Amino acid sequence: IFLLYALNGYSAELPAKKHWSWQPLKRPSVSNAPQHTNPIDAFIVARLKAKGLEPAPEADCRTLIRRLTFNLTGLPPTLKETDEYVNDTKPGAYGRLVNRLLASPAYGEHWAQHWLDLARFAETDGFEHDKIRPNAWRYRDWVIKALNDDLPYNEFVRRQIAGDMLKANKDSLATGFFAVGPTYKGDGGDPEATNVAKAETLSDRVDTFSRAFLGLTAACARCHDHKFDPISTKD
């Protein structure tokens, strides 16, 4: 968040509604210069030129398939896959490679880890009461399947927030998002300690939700102001 504020010139003096994650999406104009093989290249080249730098030489086929396979699946390409790509001289070889890797089950397995980190996924409760969660894998597999099925992002979000409440496409497994984070346990014989533990658990769930979906922290404001967050201790 700090980095994004710095890049966009935000300061703590701006109203909360100026928070970077709440701004409407805008489609930037893209240069149509012939040397760009992908619209993203235009932005990269513009930044390089601003720094007086030139783009690196285009990667050869063997380097390209290794980079792409590691990036999309977390695995190296096999010798056979490498040779097939190197010897594929028909137009559109790169696009076919991308599609093949996106269709691989390894794609969802690799990229799910990034979302599971946001969800604070764990197969145990954490802290001193670190009990095993025998069904945590169900949410993990739901995330993997959602990515491999190319589930639209709006549906991906809605099911995790309220999947058990939806009338159509009810999806209780998705709400594991709120159950796989740290769980605080109180002393069973002390009602006050038990209530505090419940409050800490719920606070963690709110903080996880706000970080993942709203681009801000919330729980920290219980104790102190964050210089670059629009939620204060007073709020």
Can you describe this structure?
It is built from 9 helices and no strands. The chain is mainly alpha-helical. Helix 6 packs across helix 7. The longest helix has 24 residues, at 191-214. The protein is globular and about 70 Å long. The model is unreliable at 1-14 (pLDDT under 50).
Q: State the distance separating the first and last CA atoms.
A: 19 Å
Radius of gyration over all CA atoms, rounded:
23 Å
> What's the tally of helices?
9
Profile the largest sheet: none
Beta content: under 5%
**Helical content band:** 40-55%
- The SSE order reads HHHHHHHHH
**Coarse structural class:** mainly alpha
Low-confidence stretches: 1-14
Please report the total strand number as a whole number: 0
Shape: globular
How confident overall, as mean pLDDT? 86
Produce a short descriptive summary.
The chain has 235 residues and is mainly α. The chain is 47% helix and 0% strand. The radius of gyration is 23 Å and the shape is globular.
